[in-house]
């Protein structure tokens, strides 16, 4: 015999019954409290572990890293080393200022370890890894504060797990240094520190790789548009100081007043540098290379512009400004006959952000805006499968 259950009649003083549906209004009400995003410790520790692995196990992928940077640094430390033609006083295409920046770590390591050159090598490697960790941590935290923890978490996962970032993070190359600067400048831009973003952009171009100026243009120009006076002063002062230091340093080593930054630009642009002598590739080289280093994450990054109508509503214009160098740089470098994997290093963090934005926007194509079912678990599962596939693919190659 079924027993009837009597319910108490609701009273006026009773709290309202919870709604069975979950709307964006409910989400807004729950998010009234201040959300500071991810804490600094999580991305710093996660990236630190992966960059430590890179510093200790990453091979040297490019001959230029050996002969244009490790050899000259070895000469500064031990007074012996091979010299490439770029370092001859006739051409003076490489600035010793970039080498001296790394000697700040290598010299104390030499004093500490003496003739144990392997330890000095790893000291520099750990320094490169630390620069990567510090700049990418700022970038991830800035993303979380401006756009939420989910986008930042996806980006952090890709920065940690993609083989491209693993290789580039501890490479002793100006393109890797420009990658650090791109991460830091983008993070400062998202934190509304526009003057600092322009200053860091100047450092990335002058101290790092002069050709990477194209990758810094969107953030720099928009920062000047927002806060012209402060951003212009910060960029101008930083540029003048670095150019002066570079000229004095080069005078000391080349024995004449010259600007290696200007020499490099003149030789490759106005002087008709013969870079094609070192090999040429077709226009699809970087697309294949990007897929090899990022697997389907690279494909997702290429879909970002197609998702722009959705992404614009979720993130606004600032994210497009941050990610746009990915497409500018990829298009420009694909038009050059001579291509190398390291030329794409500056935009590697942007590939991670673009792919993450597409992943987070992907459920919006399939669910109603008031649907209570959160498909983020499906997206996370899809991302995990893609990452495992990417690592397996690179290991196969």
From TrEMBL:
Compartments where located: Endoplasmic reticulum membrane
Keyword Ribonucleoprotein attached: no
GO MF terms, alphabetically ordered: alpha-1,2-mannosyltransferase activity
Source domain of life: Eukaryota
A Pfam family the protein falls into: Glyco_transf_22
Any one GO cellular component localisation term in the record: endoplasmic reticulum membrane
GO biological process: protein N-linked glycosylation
Membrane topology: Multi-pass membrane protein
InterPro entries linked: GPI_mannosylTrfase
Disordered as annotated region, ranges: 1-30
Keywords from the named record: Endoplasmic reticulum, Glycosyltransferase, Membrane, Transferase, Transmembrane, Transmembrane helix
Pathway: Protein modification; protein glycosylation
EC number: 2.4.1.-
Membrane-spanning ranges: 120-144, 151-173, 193-219, 231-254, 293-311, 318-337
Catalytic class of the enzyme: transferase
Family statement: Belongs to the glycosyltransferase 22 family.
Annotated protein name in UniProt: Mannosyltransferase
């Amino acid at each position: 015999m079924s027993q009837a259950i009597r319910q108490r009649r609701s009273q006026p003083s009773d709290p309202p019954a919870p709604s069975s549906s979950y709307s964006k209004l409910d989400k807004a009400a729950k998010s009234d409290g201040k959300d500071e995003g991810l804490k600094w410790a999580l991305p710093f520790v996660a990236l630190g572990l992966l960059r430590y692995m890179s510093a200790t196990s990453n091979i040297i992928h490019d001959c230029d890293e050996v002969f244009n940077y490790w050899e000259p640094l070895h000469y500064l430390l031990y007074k012996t080393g091979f010299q490439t033609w770029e370092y001859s006083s006739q051409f003076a295409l490489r600035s010793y200022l970039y080498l001296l920046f790394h000697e700040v770590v290598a010299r104390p390591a030499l004093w500490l370890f003496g003739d144990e050159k392997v330890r000095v090598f790893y000291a520099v490697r750990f320094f490169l890894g630390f620069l990567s960790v510090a700049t990418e941590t700022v970038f991830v935290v800035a993303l979380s504060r401006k756009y939420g923890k989910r986008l930042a978490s996806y980006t952090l996962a890709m920065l940690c797990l993609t083989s491209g970032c693993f290789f580039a993070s501890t490479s002793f190359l100006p393109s890797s240094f420009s990658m650090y600067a791109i991460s830091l400048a983008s993070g400062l831009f998202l934190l509304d520190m526009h003057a600092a973003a322009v200053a860091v952009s100047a450092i990335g171009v002058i101290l790092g790789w002069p050709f990477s100026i194209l990758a810094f243009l969107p953030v720099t120009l928009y920062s000047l548009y927002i806060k012209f006076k402060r951003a212009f002063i910060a960029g101008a002062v930083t540029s003048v100081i670095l150019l002066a230091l570079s000229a004095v340093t080069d005078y000391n080593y080349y024995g004449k007043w010259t600007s290696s930054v200007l020499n490099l630009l003149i030789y490759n642009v106005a002087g008709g540098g013969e870079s094609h002598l070192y090999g040429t590739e077709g226009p699809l080289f970087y697309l294949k290379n990007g897929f090899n280093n990022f697997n389907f994450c690279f494909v997702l990054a290429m879909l970002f512009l197609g998702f722009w109508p959705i992404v614009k509503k979720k993130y606004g214009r600032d994210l497009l400004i941050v990610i746009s160098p990915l497409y500018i740089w990829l298009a420009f470098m694909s038009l050059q006959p001579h291509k190398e994997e390291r030329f794409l290093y500056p935009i590697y963090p942007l590939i991670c952000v673009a792919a993450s934005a597409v992943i987070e926007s992907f459920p919006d194509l399939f669910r109603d805006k008031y649907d209570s079912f959160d498909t983020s678990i499906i997206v996370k599962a899809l991302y995990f499968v893609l990452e495992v596939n990417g690592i397996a693919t690179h290991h196969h190659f």
